[in-house]
Specification:
three-stranded antiparallel β-sheet, 36% strand, globular, 176 residues, single chain, mainly beta, 14 strands
Amino acid sequence: MLSLELFAADEQARGYLAVNAALWPCAIGAAGFSNQKIEGDGKTPLGTFALRRLWYRADRFTPPAGPLPQRAIDPLDGWSDDPEDPDYNKPVRRPHAFSHEHLWRDDGLYDAFFEIGYNDAPAISGAGSAIFLHLEKNNYQPTRGCVAISRDHMMHLIPLVSTATRLLIRNRAKPC
């Protein structure tokens, strides 16, 4: 079974994703980690999470086959980030009456991403939304709470991730 564990790095908003025996650099939330994430705090949640589904832009990214469900993104896809929305922390279709992220982005962050099973069973209003394992940009620029890896690492990871895979995020230094 695939083992995924995120370790803190010495630098703020950086980490290492341990994928079996390999260590990959990654970006985390600009404000570090949190045991009690709240919407908009810029922190990456601590805990153990399932990876629910792979989302991707078919016009920019062709994912390898893998055991996890995959869904192509289109320009009307969004993700609710409004604590007042009955669909908070769920995918939504645009236009949408409440605040939401656009999944069809120009910057490439969401050309491929794993939906992390954070605050979704059920979603607690205001406890954080849209926590993804997505693509990094600008040499691992900090995220708003997500985890970001390189495109090459994403391509390597996709065929390995299944519904049994768990991502362990904890605020401790990488092993020596």
